[in-house]
Amino acid sequence: MTIPAGLRRTVLRAQRDTGFLAAGVLPHLALVPVWAWAAATTARTGNWLLTVSMSAALVLLGTPVLTAVQRARYRVLIGVDVPGLTPTAPERWTWASTARWLAATRPWRKIGYHLLLGPLLALLELLVLAVAAACLAGVIAYAWSWALPTGIRQDWFGYLTQLPAYTAAGLLLLCALPWTARAVARAEARLALGLLGPSRAQRLQERVDQLAVSRTDLIEAVDAERRRIERDLHDGTQQRLVSLAVNLGLAIAARPDLPSDAREVIARAHLEAKEAIAELNDLVRGLHPAVLEDRGLDAALSGLAARTPLPVRLRVNLEERVAPNVESVAYFVISEALANATKHANAMRVEVIVRQVGEVLRVRVTDDGLGGADAAAGTGLTGLAKRVGSLDGAFHVSSPVGGPTTITAELPCAR
Amino acid sequence: MRAVIAEDSVLLRVGLIKVLEMGGFQVAAETGDAEGLLAAVAEHRPELALIDVRMPPGFTDEGVRAAMEIRRRWPGTPVVLLSQYVEERYAADLLSANTSGVGYLLKQRVADVADFVAAVRRVADGGTALDPQVVAQLLLRRDSDPLARLTPRERGVLGLMAEGRSNAGIAQALVVSESAVAKHINNIFAKLDLPVVDADHRRVLAVLRFLGASRA
């Protein structure tokens, strides 16, 4: 006989849930003797100061242990992870740090859970277990009746009426048991998450922290990748192309006696190689300018401004070098802004100001061009806004039609 | 003339040796890093050091630093830097002390063998060889200084001057007569407020004015 999969699952789940509830009874009752003793001793001796302080100490000592036990029970038996608070770096003791610790860990919630809610939950668990025991007893009552001596069984009228009724009631309860156990287990898990776990605000805070870290990692990984590609191209492909061009140049210079058609072919190859080098140079510089890494923003910007075919007034005021990813974003903001001013804005002159004010790097690029640039129109500006956003910076474009256009970016650069 | 080459790409090093030999140099030593370069210069005291900017171990600006070290320890040693990109800041570093016997060229210029050899010779003879691209960078961006007063033709002449060419070389490059070049140069000196003291000296001053402007 095969048991239908659905039924088997239900049975297994009921088993698991009732096991979970059974495992909860003892830890939930663990603090009862403490306060029962305290109450009894107070009543007998009247010395409430001693008993209250003693029991409070016991409760305070017991709470972390019981919390750990409960966490293990939730995790192992029903797979619910009640997260603890991620440990933070210890601070020097002050009232403020204590208040922060209390606000973060909220110990009274845990104490309340173990001290007051625990016994109630234990009662509930016992109730469910009792019902489970009763329904099992009911279901097998009829079978056990066959163990009675025949005379007794036949003399007892209940043998025909009561026992089938027990069996039926047992079966009914048995059907209800999985859902009841499940509901109680779920309710307990909810309570535990609320009272033993971190609050919603804390969970969000932790999540935000995690996301911030993973985003920073991602950005750094991308930047490292750009640098790696730049280095590979620079040390590999570019050198080969240069070497090729040099050899072709040598061929032209060293062999003036070649037939003119051969010379022409070599000359053309020479020209193409040089053009390829120039193109590759532009491409590689767009990836990650080497001078930015070597000499920092100031030097890279002066090179950039110099290559811009417009008069650029550049003022860079940095106390020290900022983080590489901040340098990189600032560079690309300015590079894109200059490219826009050149290509689209029809500008006559551009002013670039980079200043570090406290822990913010302020970048401002102003041109006297036509204006009308739209940061929301899916242009390069959108990409810049995203890159600035990736560092939690602020990006702003002011570009009324008729100009002037001002692009500002404020990048946090605390080290 | 003895030359020392520091270039970490072996392929290119072979090419450079051929080019230099074609230009009448003897390559006394070739090396792939800055330390080897300093040792080679100490040993051979060459009449030219041809140096790649980016070399091991850091692959950043080791070449520039090595070049400055060479200029400090053995003043007057002609030095030519080769770079994949020209950044005026590197050039300014190198030229801040002295503009004679200094060159800063884009690697791809090596491919134009005759021009490259001529530029390297100029440096070996105590002249200057700046890459046209550096010169262009220096010329383009200044607006608030006397360079803005120059006519495009005068800028062109100043650019070629900064590259290190003689009047004859400039006349040839611009396809004008040498006297026309001399006239332009006089105009440049006048506009840059360079008094008549010594004609050769003023050329260097004009170039330095350039570089000074690059840091404004």
TrEMBL record, chain A:
It holds the Pfam family HATPase_c. InterPro entries: HATPase_C_sf (IPR036890), HATPase_dom (IPR003594), Put_sensor_dom (IPR025828), Sensor_HK_TwoCompSys (IPR050482), Sig_transdc_His_kin_sub3_dim/P (IPR011712). GO terms for molecular function: kinase activity. Keywords: ATP-binding, Kinase, Membrane, Nucleotide-binding, Phosphoprotein, Transferase, Transmembrane, Transmembrane helix, Two-component regulatory system. Its EC number is 2.7.13.3. It is an enzyme of class 2 (transferase). It comes from the Bacteria. It catalyses: ATP + protein L-histidine = ADP + protein N-phospho-L-histidine. PANTHER family: NITRATE/NITRITE SENSOR PROTEIN NARX-RELATED (PTHR24421), NITRATE_NITRITE SENSOR PROTEIN NARQ (PTHR24421:SF10). This is histidine kinase. It comes from Streptomyces cynarae.
TrEMBL record, chain B:
Residues 143-214 form the HTH luxR-type domain. Pfam families: GerE, Response_reg. This is Response regulator transcription factor. Transmembrane segments: none annotated. The keyword Lipid biosynthesis does not apply. InterPro entries: CheY-like_superfamily, NreC/VraR/RcsB-like_REC, Sig_transdc_resp-reg_C-effctor, Sig_transdc_resp-reg_receiver, Tscrpt_reg_LuxR_C, WalR-like. CDD domains: LuxR_C_like, REC_NarL-like.
